[in-house]
From TrEMBL:
Residues 2-93 form the PARG catalytic Macro domain. One of its GO terms (cellular component) is nucleus. InterPro entries: PARG_cat_C (IPR046372), Poly_GlycHdrlase (IPR007724). Pfam families: PARG_cat_C. This is PARG catalytic Macro domain-containing protein. One of its GO terms (biological process) is carbohydrate metabolic process. It comes from the Eukaryota. One of its GO terms (molecular function) is poly(ADP-ribose) glycohydrolase activity.
Length: 108
């Protein structure tokens, strides 16, 4: 979200996701550029390209207090279905040309 700060505003309007939900925020403009990861993460100054739009997919995972519980069949199914729903929506709404839609709230 540091790269797309306007996505932070969208998250104010989205309630916590249920097990069968994903959030796709569309047509974001990349405000920041970076290089590296973790300790080598650095800001890279660049000009903002207002003609390029991006989509941001948010899918959550369940918290497991005991490590082994995440590998139970019901929990694995939940995580796989959540990913499937999210990626399906992201692929169907992949950016093809610039538009001004901001957010879709997706539920299966």
């Amino acid at each position: 979200m540091l790269i797309f700060p306007e996505a932070l505003v969208c998250m104010l309007f989205v309630p916590p996701m249920r097990q069968n939900q994903a959030v796709l925020i569309q047509d974001l403009i990349k405000q920041n550029h970076y290089k590296g990861y973790e300790h080598s993460f650095k800001f890279v100054p660049q000009e903002i390209n207002v003609r390029s739009f991006y989509n941001l997919l948010a899918i959550d995972s369940k918290h497991f207090s005991q490590f082994d519980n995440q590998f139970l069949e019901q929990n694995m199914n939940r995580e796989l279905l959540k990913c499937y729903f999210g990626f399906e929506v992201a692929l169907k709404n992949a950016p093809r040309f610039p538009t001004r839609r901001w957010m879709w709230y997706i539920q299966r």
